[in-house]
Amino acid sequence: MAITKTDFMRGMQCPKMLWLDKHRPGLRIIPPEVQARLDAGNDFGDRAMGMFGPFEEMTVYRPGTRIPDKKAMLARTAEHLALGTPVICEAAFSSYNNYCAVDILRKTETGHDFYEVKNASQVHEQFIRDAGFQYYIITRSGLKINRIFIVIHGPDESDPFQPVDVTEQAKKYYTWVNENIWNLNRMQKQREEVPADPGPQCEEPYPCWYYDYCHGKLKPAGQIAFDFDENGGETE
Ligand code: SF4
To answer: Do 2 and 185 form a contact (C-beta atoms < 8 A)?
Structure first.
């Protein structure tokens, strides 16, 4: 695959971050508290799948791994779209090999709505950009999207899933995605390390996991590389 949602958001924070993800992932150092937040986000995302009742989940892993098999997920999603399945979770889409999987895709009378789940108490702009990337890929794959929601974590633990309509804001990011996705595609494939001077992007919107590498403080021990998920609100 070319660019995923995580790739895009990380590349827009810092192109070097995306390049390191592709070429030197072993240099990542993920603080335990960040990992715990990612895990909690994944758990919240799993629970949210049932917020509209029965659903079909598209997740398929490569044999013997926890790495998503994107081609199999795309094929499975296409099957369920053809069947008219009312609620599809982890629905996968691609356009020119760029890829996204949406947390919840819900069929409507005139098309589909989608829901991006975030384990956070409020909607941050970064979440809307995430949804804008998904809207771009899904629309270019040929599916009509009506409304777009971010599902945040509300205070009532017996029913914590609170959808917030971000349709108008998310759809405005279509042009921004199109203006940047092709450059990131080219850049991530280049052989030479992408140069970037450390700056505010090392902390915002998310602390960079290559901080020690770029700031000359890398310790050999404690390096972690893994496939991460989106619902923690950190990245994808
Ligand atoms: S530490 Fe800063 S310069 Fe280095 S990859 Fe991360 S964001 Fe970019």
So the answer is: yes
**Residue 172 in contact with residue 132, Cβ under 8 Å?**
yes
Instruction: Convert the pLDDT of each residue in 183-215 to its tens digit.
Output: 999 999 999 999 999 999 999 988 999 999 999
User: Which residue's alpha carbon is nearest to atom 4 within ligand 1?
Assistant: 214
Taking the complete model, does pTM exceed 0.70, yes or no? yes
Helix spans in 84-205 (H): 125-141, 167-171, 174-189
Residue 120 CB: number of other CB atoms within 10 A?
19
What does the buried/exposed string (b/e) look like for 74-89 if buried means 16 or more CB atoms within 10 Å of the residue's CB? bebbeebbeeebebbb
Q: How far is the CA of 214 from the centre of ligand 1 (A)?
A: 6
Tens digits of per-residue pLDDT, 69-87? 999 999 999 999 999 999 9
C-alpha 23/C-alpha 213 separation (Å) is 14
Class of domain 5-214: alpha beta
Atom 7, ligand 1: residue with shortest CA distance: 202
